[in-house]
Amino acid sequence: MTVGGDRSPPLDASAAPEVSVPYTGVDHRTVDYGFLLGYIDLAFRGTQEYAVYQDLVLGPWEEVERPRGAWGLRQWRRTVEDRQSLGPSDPLGRILIRMDFRDRTKPRRKTAAPVAKRDPSRIVVLRVGTPRILLAVESANETNAQRLVGLAREVRERFRRQLD
């Protein structure tokens, strides 16, 4: 006897018609930003295994408020400090992660709030396509900025190896 009076025969999985979907080589599955942020964080933690980056202290991720009209754009910021053996930590700057889930095939509208231009030498692209992901280094000191750009490049390599 079945619960609820349902007397239909059990479903047989082998009787269902098999639908073949041609393989195109393109992964069209949607990607959650939390999933990607986790992989990026894992890449940051992996770079700390290298002797060059072992003294770095990474702060927590802080979400940056989206600009007006920027639906599909998510940004997070994290501080990076250099741990001194017998003194306080030396702040190096911040690294910004920008994930853009917007479709680029459509022409872009001008937004009301202008976006601050960044130095292209301080931007490292992690992923092209949708979502487009980039790391931007924010630092007042040029030496610290170059060290953070090196860190961002190592994160890019580890991130790409994780997704292979």
Quick overview:
This protein has 164 residues and is α+β, with helices and mostly antiparallel strands. The protein is 23% helix and 24% strand. The protein is globular and about 70 Å long.
Number of strands: 6
Q: How far do the termini sit from each other?
A: 50 Å
Largest sheet: 6 strands, antiparallel
Q: In terms of structural class, how would the helical and strand content be classed?
A: alpha+beta
Describe the overall structure.
The protein has 164 residues and is of the alpha+beta class. 23% of the residues lie in helices and 24% in strands. The protein has 2 helices and 6 strands, in the order H-E-E-E-E-E-E-H. It has helices at 33-47, 142-163; strands at 56-58, 62-64, 73-82, 90-100, 123-127, 132-138. Strands 1, 2, 3, 4, 5 and 6 form a 6-stranded antiparallel beta sheet that branches. It is globular, with a radius of gyration of 23 Å. It starts with 32 loop residues before the first helix and ends with a helix. The model has no long low-confidence stretch (mean pLDDT 79).
